Amino acid sequence: MLAKLCPGGGFSEPNTEEFYRRLGRIIGQWSAERDRPDISPLAKTIATIGSDLDAVAKILKANETGAHEPQDVEVVSQLAIILALDPEVGSRRQADKLIASLQTDAAKVAHACLVAAHDLNQMVGESGRPQSEWYDEFTALLLEVAETAGVEPRLNKDRISGERGGWLLDAAQLIETFLNPKMRSPSAEACGKRLERSKTRLTQKHRQNPSSV
Question: Quick check: pTM over 0.85?
Answer without folding.
Answer: no
